[in-house]
Amino acid sequence: MRPLISVSGGCWSASGLIDARKMFVGGLGEASPEAKAAKNLQHFFTFVALKIVLAQLQVKH
After folding, report:
1. Running DSSP on this structure, what letter comes out for residue 40?
2. Are 5 and 12 in contact (CB under 8 A)?
3. pLDDT digits over 6-18, tens only?
4. How far from 58 is each of 13, 33, 46, 50, 52, CA to CA, in Å?
5. In this prediction, what percent of the chain has a pLDDT beyond 70?
6. Are 19 and 4 within 8 A, CB to CB?
7. Cα–Cα distance between 38 and 32 in angstroms, integer?
8. For residue 14, what pLDDT is reported?
9. Following DSSP, what letter does each residue of 8-34 receive, concatenated?
10. Does position 44 have pLDDT exceeding 90, yes or no?
11. What residues does each domain of the chain span?
12. Vertex 30 angle, CA 46 and 21, to 5°
């Protein structure tokens, strides 16, 4: 592993990439932001699917 170089308070690797391990923010036992986003997307797509089905059921021929 290459040594880290501190640049203006950030942690950068010698290759110039950000060391993601230094960017972790604990959530006090909560779900991760990714898990929250995944749950919200699932609820959103379920909502949209229900709206589509309800609209199809209400169409008069």
Report:
1. H
2. yes
3. 455 566 566 777 7
4. 59, 37, 18, 12, 10
5. 67
6. yes
7. 10
8. 67
9. TTEEEETTS-B-GGGG----TTPPPHH
10. yes
11. 1-26, 31-61
12. 110
Phi and psi at 12, nearest 5°, equal: -115, 145
Q: Which two tokens stand for residue 13?
A: 């690797």
Question: What does pTM read for this prediction?
Answer: 0.51
- Burial of residue 13 (CB within 10 Å: 0-12, 13-18, 19+) is middle
**Torsion angle defined by CA atoms of residues 55, 57, 59 and 60, in that order, rounded to the nearest 10 degrees:** -160
Q: Is a pLDDT exceeding 80 seen at residue 48?
A: yes
Whether 19 contacts 12, CB under 8 Å: yes
User: What DSSP character marks residue 57?
Assistant: H
Return the SS3 of 4: strand
| pLDDT > 90 fraction of the chain, expressed in percent and rounded | 41
